[in-house]
Amino acid sequence: MKTPAHWQSRGVVAWLLWPLSCLFAGLAALRRAAYARGIKASTHPGLPVVVVGNITAGGSGKTPLVIALVKLFGQHGLRAGVVSRGYGGSGARPEGQEGVKTADVADLVTPDSDPAMVGDEPVLIAQHAGCPVVVGVNRASAADKLRETGDVDLVLTDDGLQHYALQRDIEIAVVDSTAGLGNGLLLPAGPLREPAWRLETVDYVVGNGDETGFDVMATGLVAVDGRQDVRAPSELSGQRVHAVAGIAAPEKFFALLRSFGATVVPHTFSDHHAFVPSDLAFESEDRIIMTEKDAVKCRQFATPDMWALRIEAVLARAWSEALLRQVTELVAHYKSYDKA
Fold it and tell me: Fewest CB atoms within 10 Å of the CB: 18, 45, 215, 332?
């Protein structure tokens, strides 16, 4: 989906949709209350659970942040595993589990998994974080499967702030520092999944593009076809390129390419678009540059002129060190509880 224009202002369209936002808010409140009072069941996997999510619809940079956190924890001897819904994947039922509901099926993701089956972001995490990744519509079931691997000290969720069926120890809310909370209204009149006050209840509010939160930096151009060929983004200077983006905020990607001096011919697709070769059959032979999230879906038919811009999240020290201390203490606490 593209971000609707009315999400950025309280114009006529937003106010016409406001009654539906009130209904959405009421249903969301009832759902939160049902989990809080035990009417709807929620479970905990017995490992520290850190949720990385947001209160707005659309992308806010959660996946690069999750990868950076896995690496941060790993540098200090903490093995993190990641749970994701696997948006964009078909969620096919594993062989021999015909009687299992799709929502209860959790799949282990590898760097070579098919994004059409498990989703593009989980594959990207598996490739770059080097940790166990499990996808499932029911994140509580996915977290249980992650623990069963026996190879993790804590669970990180890529999205899922509103998935209250999975109990959590720490909540991190990501806010895009450019788009912010839009017009401040709930869906469908605005971009909010939950009211703005929800940010007051989380442990960390982290701005994407904010020096006190985290920023993303481009670290290289990588050949999509699997060749071990990495180039410096600076070589885009003075080049005309076809910029392909099937993400929630394509303009940020285009702007990043322009910052390296490229002349950008933009090609925007819906978020999690399932690419086919004809999507990239452009008339001119200029180099094609895409996001890594899109690249994992194009590697089977990639040509030598297709490149992905690799980005990494750079974390502000103050909050990331505080989080590291908190997680370290939680891991020790859960391990001591297991021994008891």
Answer: 332
